[in-house]
Amino acid sequence: DRLRSRGLGDVYKRQVYNIVLSLQDVTQKNLISGERHFVALKNYITLFHDNVFLHSIGNTLLYTVCCLVLQFVIGFALALFFTKKFSFSKPVRGLLMMPWMIPITVTALIFKLLFATDIGVLNYILKSLHLVSENIEWLTTPQTAMFALICANVWIGIPFNMILISTGLTTIPKDLYESASIDGATGLQAFFKITLPLLRPTIESVLILGFIYTFKVYDLVYVMTSGGPVNSTHMLSTYSYKLSFEMFQYSKGSAVANVLLVILMIVGVFYLRATKEENE
User: At 69, phi and psi to the nearest 5?
Assistant: First the structure.
């Protein structure tokens, strides 16, 4: 407990320092000299007039929503599929958990090779099937680069959704389905009248946690595209890194990180309120 409290204390100290830093004008020039001028909300005002920052917010929201929808739908379908008893169901389900267990940087490198222009597996398959005549520049075109990032993250997130929804399905009494069947309810009616209502707490948890994990993505994007091409796939996290450690505008980078923190805090508060109301 003492180590845990010390760790939380360090986190709070770093966050307070980050907030203070965002209210100052700290760059590579005055970092060593210690001349840190207080500029109040100037960095935040400047950011909201920065097209790359605004585009990063849009990218992060688009990326998060697309990933959440695809992960949830596919994970839900797989969870329902594995409720059926058949041979090799457990080994197959175990294999499907592998994308979640592999480090994200390794997965990013795999998908970077998969979507590579000249040596990419996907282009090779498409050309072998005569679906395309020339290699598609997946990671160097803005629209296709975002598509590649979404595919990679969906691959990672499907097992997470599947295992949580599968756990929720096991808590639903089988007697309810038997009673519904006796009353003449179809499988679709049982799904909408029994499965979905009783899975509501699980679904809320899956979506909120998935939003938080996806919204703060960094390593996957940095390895695959580094925010390119031409800043088209920058997320809030990667743009914060670029401002801080590539452009050496530390205060602006801290301001972007704080915007990310505020958005996630709002989502977290919403989740806590929804959970409290559900329990009551």
Answer: -65, -50
Tokens coding 266:
């709002």
Other Cβ atoms less than 10 A from the Cβ of 82: the count is 19
Backbone φ and ψ of 38, nearest 5° = -80, 125
Predicted confidence (pLDDT) per residue in 141-158, tens digit = 888 999 999 999 999 999
Check if the beta carbon of residue 74 is closer than 8 Å to that of residue 154: yes
Dihedral angle sign, alpha carbons of residues 105, 108, 113, 114? positive
Q: How sure is the predictor about 76, in pLDDT bands with cuts at 50, 70 and 90?
A: very high
> Any idea how long the chain is?
280
The answer to whether 251 and 24 have CB atoms below 8 angstroms apart is yes
Q: What CA–CA distance (Å, rounded) separates 242 from 227?
A: 9
Say which amino acid occupies 182.
I
Question: Is 0.70 surpassed by the pTM of this model?
Answer: yes
- In 131-262, the DSSP E strands lie at none
User: Which tops the pLDDT comparison, 27 or 244?
Assistant: 244
Give the position of tokens 């007697």.
175
Nearest one of 18, 158, 141, 135 to 82, comparing CA atoms: 158
- Rounded to 5°, angle at Cα 108 from 52 and 81: 110
Report how far apart, in Å, the C-alpha atoms of 254 and of each of 42, 45, 62, 214, 244 are. 13, 13, 23, 20, 7
- What is the arithmetic mean of pLDDT over 172-186? 84
Please answer whether residues 169 and 83 qualify as being in contact, where contact means their C-beta atoms are separated by less than 8 angstroms: yes
